[in-house]
């Protein structure tokens, strides 16, 4: 559309937001990504004895070598010897998507210079895209919420980070990271189940199950003729179950964890795929408490970890004093881990305690799941479809003239 | 609550509020009436698109046209409808374009109307940049040399300024610390504005006075330091500051009260003196001097002392005894006191209202009231003096080690004239705290109490004191009989 009310001008671009838990992809100008799939790949290595894996791709299986499976449809089928790995370990993405005719807009949360340059090189050399732009996900999250200045608190799967954004630029000196996030929660849940001596059985193994009373051990029948699955894949599937438990049961308490108060909270009933069901009361408050008060959490080496409130205040404290009111006035909360019930209320409380009373504190947290998980992608979609953005792409010509260092100059 | 007009509106009956309650006829034959009434009631109808309740806020049932200026409501309250034209559809085309704001002339594609093919890219005009001055090597060597900054560093700074459009916060964040030294934002700004200023001066045509932006780095640093301190205040410090401000306010209030009371007392005393003077002056010069003198002296009597009898100026016939009536402003206690004294002296409470008697009687009662007030003030002062003395002795006995001598003076100083114990307690306890912070000078406190004591109790030192004592003694017979 040309011009229009919002200053938009679509040139046809793809927006990718690669996170550690999921990848969001779609077209610029839309309000939610078309594809949202986990950031894991199933890899099978063809064996020489001729056993071919079952898949829908048909001809491609003839190639000997590694085959990759992406997206839940292909990923969650039990295959023999399929290893699960994250493509992000070495920073290279293995997704082969037809990018030739469209411009690619990528957002990523890590920002070491070497990796960015390598990514640019990959895009232009390997995939031959016409234009490319790399942006930090914190900036886009802020844009998606209508702010160009603010403190972006992103609590995802692998870490919780507080990133100050000023006028559309990330202040790198003020970034504070903490590893206490979604994966940490999953680990704690796993330990809880171990303590309760409950086995996590992913659904693919279950042929049938009988209803049992609360708390009593499950009674279920295993599926026959299951292929030999690898350990990593099995772990992955168990993780899925735990993540479901985590999302539905856990809650953050309003005030610092107190035994008596927790005991009085209403319990939530949850049933595992194998039929084991139980009421969870105090545990559901205790586990997420580790996010805000790491001294509570089990299995943490030393107390050097920062709780979420501390992460935010430290980050703001490292910034220039003139912009601090601006940062506190728009604290943007994003990330899937923040969708735990009670997270934003508790964060609000902690921050209002820690900031001086004259400081205006405003927390911006969208209520819908879509907006919080995909806010970086949405910001990218907005940015890539603006008329005034079209001068900022790194075109193939510029790349050829300037080399991969141009990404540092053009993508702040 | 739905009013008649609301119901009409909902049912779209039309018609003004003159029609009275809605009857069955309106509803059943409504279709006939609608067309007729719609044309008549133009002025009172709410604009289309405005909600009923909003309109009701403005113009309620019984009122006439509102006294507001009629505004154009066609703009705001319209539900936007799609304007579907009947013309032919203008075709769009996926066409390539170049963005003049780009340096490389890359070609992108987008959808545009065929009619606009070839026109400029509309968003190119938003490409504005900040003007960052560029200096040559020569200029640098000649004018911009500085000990703290190497050429490389200055170049790096200017490069960042250009890239980030003079956003110094971001520039400071992206500054290369490994290669160059660690600089604060003020350092960067200082260097930048210095160079800009020098360049404008050097490049300006001779004779013109260029306007240079002066950046005060010292001031900025101090300001930021202070902000940091303010930001890092603990809640205890904030509470302490609030407490101190409150204390200050309390002290100021007490001071005002004291001054007020002292003033009142002064007025009273003055009144007493002037009345006695007046009397004597009158007796002496009643026959010899002109009556004008009396008029000039009379206004000196303050109004608050004694009773002011209203001057009765009414048309027609009045009774002289009206002038003898006590005004209602005189309090109950005073009335009682007057009556008591008059009774004791054997004076008739309501004498025969002859001219002379009326005047003298009024004066007498005024004097009695004045006397009563003076007595009260005197007893108050005596009571306070007693209390202060006791307090002083108590403080002397208790904990009066070395160095508390000043404190006791301070303790007395802080005493409010109101004489309530609680206030005394608080000031006595606050002064040790005050001492601990070495906040106001103990010397100051010492000096002040003397003045205050003089204010309150220093009757013997005022100019009219002799006369006051005399006036007091003249009514001493009255005084003995009456006890406060």
UniProtKB/TrEMBL annotation, chain A:
Top-level taxon in the UniProt lineage: Eukaryota
Keyword Nucleus belongs to the record: yes
* Record InterPro entries: Actin, Actin_CS, ATPase_NBD
Indicate whether Plastid appears among the record's keywords: no
Keyword terms of this UniProt record: Chromatin regulator, Neurogenesis, Nucleus, Oxidation, Transcription, Transcription regulation
Location relative to the cell: Nucleus
List the protein's name.
Actin-like 6A
Its lineage reads: Eukaryota, Metazoa, Chordata, Craniata, Vertebrata
TrEMBL record, chain B:
Domain DAMP1 SANT/Myb-like, chain residue ranges per copy: 121-199
Main localization is nucleus
Q: Where is the composition biased (Polar residues)?
A: 423-432
Q: Which GO terms describe its biological process?
A: chromatin remodeling; DNA repair; negative regulation of transcription by RNA polymerase II
**InterPro entries with a match to the protein in the record:** DAMP1_SANT-like (IPR032563), DMAP1 (IPR008468), Swc4/Dmap1 (IPR027109)
The organism's superkingdom is given as: Eukaryota
Residue ranges that the Swiss-Prot or TrEMBL entry lists as coiled coil: 248-275
The biased composition feature labelled Basic and acidic residues covers: 1-11, 22-40
GO cellular component terms listed in the entry, alphabetical order: NuA4 histone acetyltransferase complex; Swr1 complex
One annotated GO molecular function = transcription corepressor activity
Q: What are the record keywords, sorted?
A: Chromatin regulator, Coiled coil, Nucleus, Transcription, Transcription regulation
Q: What is the protein named?
A: DNA methyltransferase 1-associated protein 1
- Domain called DNA methyltransferase 1-associated: residue spans: 240-397
Q: Where in the cell is it found?
A: Nucleus
* Annotated segments matching region Disordered: 1-40, 280-300, 423-442, 453-484
């Amino acid at each position: 559309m040309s011009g229009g009310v919002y200053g938009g001008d679509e040139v046809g671009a793809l927006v990718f937001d690669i996170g550690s838990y999921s990848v969001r992809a779609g077209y610029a100008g839309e309000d939610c990504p078309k594809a949202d799939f986990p950031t894991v790949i199933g890899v099978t290595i063809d064996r020489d004895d001729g056993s071919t894996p079952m898949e829908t791709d048909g001809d491609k299986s003839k190639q000997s070598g590694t085959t990759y499976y992406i997206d839940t449809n292909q990923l969650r089928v039990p295959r023999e010897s399929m290893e699960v790995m994250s493509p992000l370990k070495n920073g290279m993405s293995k997704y082969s998507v037809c990018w030739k005719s469209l411009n690619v807009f990528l957002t990523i949360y890590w920002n070491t210079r070497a990796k960015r340059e390598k990514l640019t090189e990959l895009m232009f050399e390997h995939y031959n895209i016409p234009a490319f732009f790399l942006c930090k996900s914190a900036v886009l999250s802020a844009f998606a919420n209508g702010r160009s200045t603010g403190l972006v608190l992103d609590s995802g799967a692998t870490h919780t980070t507080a990133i100050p954004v000023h006028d559309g630029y990330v202040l790198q000196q003020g970034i504070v990271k903490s590893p206490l996030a979604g994966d940490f929660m999953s680990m704690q849940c796993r330990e809880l189940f171990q303590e309760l001596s409950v086995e996590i059985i992913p659904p693919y193994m279950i042929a049938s199950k009988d209803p049992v009373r609360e708390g009593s051990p499950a009674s279920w029948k295993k599926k026959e003729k299951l292929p030999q699955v690898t350990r990593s894949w099995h772990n992955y599937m168990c993780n899925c179950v735990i993540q479901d438990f985590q999302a539905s049961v856990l809650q953050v308490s309003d005030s610092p964890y107190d035994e008596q108060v927790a005991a009085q909270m209403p319990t939530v009933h949850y049933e595992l795929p194998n039929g084991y069901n139980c009421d969870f009361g105090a545990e559901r408050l205790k586990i997420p408490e580790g996010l805000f008060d790491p001294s509570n959490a089990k299995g943490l080496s030393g107390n050097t970890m920062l709780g979420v409130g501390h992460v935010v205040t430290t980050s703001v404290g490292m910034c220039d004093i003139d912009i601090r009111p601006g940062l506190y006035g728009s604290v943007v909360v994003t990330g899937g881990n923040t969708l735990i019930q009670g997270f934003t209320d508790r964060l609000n409380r902690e921050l209002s305690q820690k900031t001086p009373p004259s400081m205006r504190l405003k927390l911006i947290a969208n209520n819908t799941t879509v907006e919080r998980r995909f806010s970086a992608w949405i910001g990218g979609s907005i940015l890539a479809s603006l008329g005034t953005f079209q001068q900022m792409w790194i075109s193939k010509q510029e790349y050829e003239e300037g080399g991969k260092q141009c990404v540092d100059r053009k993508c702040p | 609550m739905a009013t008649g007009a609301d119901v009409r509106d909902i049912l779209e009956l039309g018609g003004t509020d003159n029609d009275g309650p809605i009857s069955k006829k309106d509803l059943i034959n409504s279709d006939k009436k609608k067309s007729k009434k719609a044309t008549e009631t133009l002025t009172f109808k709410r604009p289309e698109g405005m909600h009923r309740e909003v309109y009701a806020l403005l113009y309620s049932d019984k009122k006439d046209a509102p006294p507001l200026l009629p505004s154009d409501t066609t703009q705001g309250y319209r539900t936007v409808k799609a304007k579907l034209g009947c013309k032919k559809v203008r075709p769009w085309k996926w066409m390539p374009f170049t963005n003049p704001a780009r340096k490389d002339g890359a070609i992108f594609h987008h959808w545009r109307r065929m009619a606009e093919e070839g026109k400029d890219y509309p968003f190119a005009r938003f490409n504005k940049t900040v003007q960052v001055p560029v200096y040559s090597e020569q200029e640098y060597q000649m004018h911009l040399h500085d000990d703290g900054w190497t050429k490389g560093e200055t170049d790096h700074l200017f490069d960042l300024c250009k890239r980030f459009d003079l956003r110094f916060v971001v520039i400071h964040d992206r500054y290369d610390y490994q290669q160059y030294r660690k600089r604060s934002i003020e350092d960067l700004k200082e260097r930048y504005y210095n160079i800009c200023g020098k360049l404008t001066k050097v490049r300006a045509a001779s004779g013109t006075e260029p306007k240079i932006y002066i950046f005060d780095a010292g001031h900025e640093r101090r300001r930021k330091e202070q902000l940091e301190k303010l930001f890092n205040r603990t809640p205890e410090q904030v509470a302490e500051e609030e407490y101190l401000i409150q204390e200050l306010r309390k002290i100021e209030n007490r001071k005002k009260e004291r001054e007020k009371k002292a003033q009142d007392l002064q007025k009273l005393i003055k009144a007493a003196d002037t009345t006695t003077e007046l009397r004597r002056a009158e007796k002496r010069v009643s026959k010899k001097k002109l009556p004008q003198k009396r008029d000039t002296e009379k206004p000196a009597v303050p109004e608050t002392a004694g009773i002011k009898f209203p001057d009765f100026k009414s048309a027609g016939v009045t009774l002289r005894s009206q002038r003898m009536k006590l005004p209602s402003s005189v309090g109950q206690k005073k009335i009682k006191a007057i009556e008591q004294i008059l009774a004791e002296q054997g004076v008739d409470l309501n004498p025969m209202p002859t001219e002379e008697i009326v005047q003298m009687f009024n004066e007498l009662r005024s004097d009695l009231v004045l006397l009563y007030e003076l007595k009260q003030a005197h007893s108050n002062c005596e009571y306070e003096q007693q209390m202060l003395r006791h307090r002083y002795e108590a403080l002397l006995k208790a904990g009066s080690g070395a160095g508390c001598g000043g404190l006791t003076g301070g303790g007395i100083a802080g005493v409010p004239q109101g004489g309530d114990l609680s206030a005394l307690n608080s000031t006595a306890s606050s002064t040790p705290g005050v001492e601990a912070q070495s906040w106001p000078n103990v010397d100051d406190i010492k000096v002040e109490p003397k003045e205050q004591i003089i204010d309150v109790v220093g009757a013997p030192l005022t100019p009219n004191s002799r006369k006051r004592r005399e006036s007091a003694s003249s009514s001493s017979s009255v005084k003995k009989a009456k006890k406060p």
